[in-house]
Design goal:
Its main location: cytoplasm. Its EC number is 2.3.1.180. It is found in: Cytoplasm. By secondary structure, the protein is an alpha+beta fold. The chain folds into two domains: 3-174, Thiolase/Chalcone synthase (Peroxisomal Thiolase, Chain A, domain 1), CATH 3.40.47; 176-184 and 215-326, Thiolase/Chalcone synthase (Peroxisomal Thiolase, Chain A, domain 1, 3-Layer(aba) Sandwich), CATH 3.40.47. The protein contains nine helices and 17 strands. It has helices at 22-26, 33-40, 54-69, 93-100, 116-129, 220-242, 259-269, 280-283, 290-300, and strands at residues 5-14, 18-21, 44-47, 78-82, 106-110, 135-143, 161-171, 176-183, 191-192, 195-196, 199-203, 206-209, 212-213, 217-218, 251-254, 309-316, 320-327. Strands 1-7-6-4-5 form a five-stranded mixed sheet, sandwiched between helices. A four-stranded mixed sheet has the order 8-17-16-15, sandwiched between helices. It starts with a strand and ends with a strand. Bound molecules: acetyl coenzyme *A (ACO). The site of acetyl coenzyme *A has 23 residues, from α2 and α6.
Length: 330
């Protein structure tokens, strides 16, 4: 019989060792610990040095998740790497597959910015639901420090680097209870890491663009308003699909962008602060890594227990946003 239920049986994370706190950042741009803490809740972030690759962080996080799930890497069918900052524009997932010894897995990168982990979870789950695959490794990893303008105090204070991973497995009992994912490109210009072509005439009359990427640009207030309005909507939709109510959620793990966003969303939904998981004070916004990083810490601290219902929700560039509700563990 084909099993098409989904369980999330392992998690793991990894962060680079370089630590930059708000006081250090105040020496670089005109800001203060007081401003950053009160506006965002962030007190420090981890940054990758030039020798640390995205793949290294992703592999370390994946190995922890694989160990917790107690599966053999050779049994993994699919690896999805959710990232906006791959080491290689052609994709880094296959290199990770090789390094993990996941010899039979097909592997690909997926980009949906800070919604990447939620979009990846939903994508991964479709392959299990259809009975095609049994064991899927999902990694969310980003090194946004490489693309931040370190002289722009409006953005450089927000981001940090890291990776998180989960293992999804086919199960008779379906623990993925509901989800909703959305995109709306109308506000695409509010948050970009865009290509900047430099015209090169390679032959008379034939000009192509060969350049690099601009640093991240963001309209912080627009993104803030968008998140506070749209995130509760998808959470309610995911709950509706699961036929559950908001008080039946044990934990809320939002994309760790800003403590004020976490508080405002929880307040709108009437979710008490003790159910809201937050570790952004230590890591800042780690983009696709932020949800699995927070999940992993809460599981390893013993906060999240098997059977607990967890609502996750990501939001960010695209614009993209989404929510998924699942029961933790086997
Ligand atoms: N230090 C000191 N002052 C600052 C700083 C800073 N680091 N940054 C901005 N300011 C100043 C501004 O210049 C402005 O001054 P002015 O009034 O004289 O012009 C004042 O502080 C207020 O600026 P705002 O932009 O209005 O500050 P706000 O309260 O909106 O906070 C923030 C800014 C933290 C960026 C907020 O808007 C936010 O968190 N937005 C959401 C960002 C986000 O969540 N992104 C997630 C997606 S990321 C992804 O997908 C990759």
């Amino acid at each position: 019989m084909i099993t098409t239920g989904i369980s999330i049986t392992g998690c793991g994370s990894a962060t680079p060792s370089v630590l930059l706190d708000n006081h250090g950042l105040s020496e670089r741009v005109e800001t203060s610990d007081e401003w950053i803490t009160s506006r965002t809740g962030i007190t420090q972030r981890r940054l990758a040095d030039p020798d640390t690759s995205l793949s290294q962080l992703a592999i370390a996080a994946a190995q922890n998740a694989i160990a917790m799930a107690a599966i053999d890497p050779a049994d993994i069918d699919l690896i999805i790497l959710a990232t906006s900052t791959a080491d290689d524009l052609f994709g880094s997932a296959s290199f990770i597959q090789y390094q993990l010894g996941a010899t039979k897995a097909v592997a690909f990168d997926m980009t949906a910015a800070c919604s990447g982990f939620v979009f990846g979870l939903v994508t991964a789950s479709q392959f299990i639901r259809t009975g095609v695959y049994q064991n899927v490794l999902l990694i969310g990893a980003d090194i946004l420090s490489r693309w931040v303008d370190w002289s722009d105090r409006r953005t450089c204070i927000l981001f940090g680097d890291g990776a998180g991973a989960v293992v999804l497995q086919a199960d008779e009992h379906d623990r993925l209870l509901g989800f909703e994912i959305r995109s709306d490109g109308r506000q695409n210009q509010s948050l970009n890491l865009s290509y900047r072509p430099e015209p090169q005439e390679i032959l008379t009359g034939i000009t192509i663009g060969q350049g690099t990427y601009n640093p991240i640009t963001m309209n912080g207030q627009e993104i803030y308003k968008f998140a506070v309005k749209k995130v509760p909507e998808v959470i309610e939709k995911a709950l509706f699909r699961a036929n559950l109510t908001v008080d039946q959620i044990d934990w809320l793990i939002l994309h760790q962008a800003n403590q004020r966003i976490l508080n405002a969303v929880a307040e709108r939904l009437n979710i008490p602060p003790k159910k809201v998981i937050s570790n952004l004070a230590k890591y800042g916004n780690t983009s696709a890594a932020s949800i699995p990083l927070a999940l992993d810490e809460a599981v390893r601290e013993g906060k999240i227990k098997p059977g607990d219902r967890i609502m996750i929700s990501g939001f960010g560039a695209g614009l993209t946003w989404g929510a998924a509700l699942f029961e933790w563990g086997r």
